[in-house]
Specification:
Largest sheet: 7 strands, mixed
Strand order of the largest sheet: 3-2-1-4-5-7-6
Distance between the termini: 52 Å
Number of helices: 10
Radius of gyration: 18 Å
Structural class: alpha/beta
Oligomer: single chain
Bound molecules: S-adenosylmethionine
Strand content: 5-15%
């Protein structure tokens, strides 16, 4: 298989990656046949997967605008993924010129393509790091240069925590990142769940098994388990809800039923 110029040498392009599968669901071009094949297998069980991803991106953009409108000018996006339409820096910097954005991902394609998209943007940077190593994120040169931790930050953990198994203690990683944030900071989060999927659970499990097969298990958590990530935060109205119901700009009734799969929420530290 030919290696395109955007694929870093370090990656094994015969193994699917969750960021490239997600890119495929969203109609992007940074994916390989192995990724598309895994995505198509998952879609045999849950044909509405792309609708879930679109609802996730739409929530993320509304939440970034909400943060900017509430005076936040710094964004730390962990698990930022392969850039696509309407990225965090575009939304944040359109609402607040000069807003600072740091992207963090452990996937080399996501990091390399983010660097290309950001180009010479002086107010944004990319870190190759793991959510499970919060110190490395917080002490990275990009965070030290661009983010003033004495002032409020919007911490984005959008569609990432469901890739972290309980044995790796995602709650501890979120608590460590949250502890570094100044009062008035926001946690913006989405998470997959069997709750809200318009299919019998047995059918949805078929899609979850595809991620297990590619050794990137998708951890479906209950609403209560997801709410625990917000320990120490006050929930912003309307709380932890299906994605289309979080401060909608268009009528949620018009959304595809799949868009209501999983949960989204924003919390604020006091
Ligand atoms: C489904 S994508 C979400 C991208 C973006 N946040 C969005 O919602 O559009 C999940 C991203 O999380 C990244 N990811 C998963 N586990 C991670 C970890 N432990 N540390 C850093 N990034 C991780 C993946 O590489 C992928 O790019």
């Amino acid at each position: 298989m030919d290696r395109p110029a955007w694929a870093p040498r370090s990656i094994d392009i015969s193994v699917p990656s969750v960021s490239r599968i997600y890119d495929y669901y969203l109609g992007g071009s940074h994916n390989f046949e192995v990724d598309r094949e895994a995505a198509r297998r998952a879609m045999e069980f849950m044909p509405g997967l792309p609708k879930i991803m679109q609802a996730n991106r739409a929530f993320m953009r509304r939440a970034v605008r909400y943060a900017a409108d509430s005076g936040i000018t710094q964004f730390l996006d962990v698990g930022s993924g392969i850039p696509t339409f309407g990225n965090v820096h575009e939304v944040a910097q359109a609402a607040r010129p000069g807003a600072r954005v740091v992207y963090v991902d452990h996937d080399p394609v996501a990091v390399a393509h983010s660097q290309v998209v950001l180009g010479e943007n002086p107010d944004a940077g990319v870190v190759a790091a793991d959510l499970l190593k919060p110190r490395e994120i917080l002490t990275s040169p990009q965070v030290e240069q661009l983010i003033d931790l004495e002032r409020p930050v919007a911490l984005l953990l959008v569609a990432i925590l469901h890739f972290v198994e309980d044995t790796d203690d995602p709650y501890a990683a979120v608590a460590e990142l949250s502890a570094a944030l100044a009062p008035g900071s926001l946690l913006v989060l989405t998470h997959a769940s069997y709750e809200g999927i318009p299919l019998p659970q047995g059918r949805a499990e078929g899609a979850v098994d595809v991620y297990k097969d590619i050794r990137n298990p998708l951890v479906m958590r209950s609403r209560d388990e997801i709410a625990r990530f917000f320990e120490g935060y006050d929930m912003v109205e309307p709380g932890l809800v299906p994605m289309p119901n979080w401060r909608p700009e268009t009528a949620p009734e018009d959304e595809d039923p799949y868009a209501f799969s999983g949960f989204a929420g924003v919390g604020r530290t006091s």
